[in-house]
């Protein structure tokens, strides 16, 4: 079974520039997550999709971050304009959803390491 | 709200030493509990899980028991190897919120 695919693996941009990350979840997984992991910290949920609807985006800085999952499959996360403090690893994860049990365990991609200079 | 607390690292051990990484949680309802491992430059990989009280998750010589009375899910391994050097994250999931909550991670360094 193919895992969660993310691209690019690394990105270096200057502050105030824009950047986009792409994620293709495991086939059939209804739930897709974007996490931000700052060096030395645990992952912080930015946004959670159930199919193509947003379940939780309470910690997404909406003035600069946006995400979409138009066809309920792959997703993009965009930052515009980037700030120095956005330097982090951006992790995408997916899980399947069962009405009785909720989400199964999350499977993670390798992440995109963003450096803002 | 729900939260996960892990022991701070780094934890440095010699090869073949016994490992314990403490994890306690606060949650409403009955969460599922997980340990994820992150090797350098990689994403998170599920190491083991437990979905109800007294369940024991195990994988690759690691194990953790879901203790409801102490709200804990400590990770243990009897004999660590250099290849176990990584960051370990404890996490919980509650079906009421459909959210995963992660701890801050514990870095393990195993010396030959």
What does this structure look like?
The complex is a heterodimer of chains A (117) and B (112). Chain A is an all-beta fold and 117 residues long. Chain A contains no helices and 13 strands. The termini of chain A are far apart. Chain B has strands at 3-6, 11-14, 19-21, 23-26, 32-38, 44-50, 56-59, 62-65, 75-77, 86-94, 99-102, 106-111. With 112 residues, chain B is mainly beta. Chain B contains no helices and twelve strands. Chain B starts with a strand and ends with a strand. In chain B, 0% of the residues lie in helices and 53% in strands. The chains are: A mainly beta (117), B mainly beta (112).
Runs of chain A with pLDDT <50, length 5+?
none
The portion of residues forming beta strands of chain B comes to over 45%
Please state the structural category of chain A. Answer: mainly beta
Q: Helix segment count of chain B?
A: 0
- Summarize the main sheet of chain B: 6 strands, mixed
Helix content of chain A: under 10%
Low-confidence stretches of chain B: none
Shape of chain A: globular
Number of strands of chain A: 13
Structural class of chain B: mainly beta
The overall average pLDDT of chain B, rounded, is 92
N to C succession of SSEs of chain A: EEEEEEEEEEEEE
Instruction: Determine the N-to-C terminus distance of chain B.
Output: 41 Å
Mean pLDDT of chain A: 92
Determine the fraction of residues in helical runs of chain B and give it as a percent range: under 10%
Count of runs of 4 or more consecutive helical residues of chain A: 0
């Amino acid at each position: 079974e193919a895992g969660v695919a993310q691209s690019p693996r690394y990105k270096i941009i200057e502050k105030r520039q824009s950047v986009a990350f792409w994620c293709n979840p495991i086939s059939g997984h209804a739930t897709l997550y974007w996490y931000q992991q700052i060096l030395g910290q645990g992952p912080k949920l930015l946004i959670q999709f159930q199919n193509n609807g947003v379940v939780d985006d309470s910690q997404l800085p909406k003035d600069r971050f946006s995400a979409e999952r138009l066809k309920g499959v792959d997703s993009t996360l965009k930052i515009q304009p980037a700030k120095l403090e956005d330097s982090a690893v951006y992790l995408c994860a997916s899980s399947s959803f069962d009405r009785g049990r909720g989400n199964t365990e999350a499977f993670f991609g390798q992440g995109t390491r963003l450096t803002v200079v | 709200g729900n939260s996960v607390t892990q022991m701070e690292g780094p934890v440095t051990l010699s090869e073949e030493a016994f490992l314990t990484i403490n994890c306690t949680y606060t949650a409403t309802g009955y969460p599922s509990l997980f340990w994820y491992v992150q090797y350098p430059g990689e994403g998170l990989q599920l190491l083991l899980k437990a979905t109800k009280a007294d369940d024991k998750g195990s994988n690759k010589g690691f194990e953790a028991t879901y203790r409801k009375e102490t709200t804990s899910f400590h990770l243990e391994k009897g004999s660590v190897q250099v290849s176990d050097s990584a960051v370990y994250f404890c996490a919980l999931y509650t079906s009421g919120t459909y959210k995963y909550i992660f701890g801050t991670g514990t870095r393990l360094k195993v010396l030959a």
